[in-house]
Amino acid sequence: MTKQTLETSTYVEAMAQLIDLELKTDHRPGVIKNFATIYAIASLVTEFSLPDYIAAAPVFKP
């Protein structure tokens, strides 16, 4: 699996436009910073490979 990179400012702008969300100029830097943090945290989980004998569960059942 290759590591993907994300240009967060481009992504945030594109998604805001896609969902017709008006981001105020003052809020953009914070939204971009928070999204970059979310992406970094999520990468820790998504980049962890499971052994072949383990199947990922589609539904969490405690």
Secondary structure: elements and pairs:
Elements: H1 8-18, H2 28-46
Give the overall silhouette. elongated
Q: Classify the secondary structure makeup into a structural class.
A: mainly alpha
Main pleated-sheet profile = none
Number of strands: 0
Secondary-structure element series: HH
Q: How far is it from the N-terminal to the C-terminal residue, by CA?
A: 29 Å
Give average pLDDT, whole number: 86
Helix content bin: 40-55%
Low-confidence stretches: none
Taking all Cα atoms into account, the compactness measure Rg is 16 Å
Strand content: under 5%
How large is the count of helical segments? 2
3D architecture notes:
With 62 residues, this protein is mostly helical. Helix content is 48%, strand content 0%. The chain has helices spanning 8-18, 28-46. The mean pLDDT is 86.
List the main descriptive attributes of the protein structure presented here.
62 residues; 2 helices; mainly alpha
Give a short synopsis of this structure:
With 62 residues, the protein is mainly α. The protein has 2 helices and no strands.
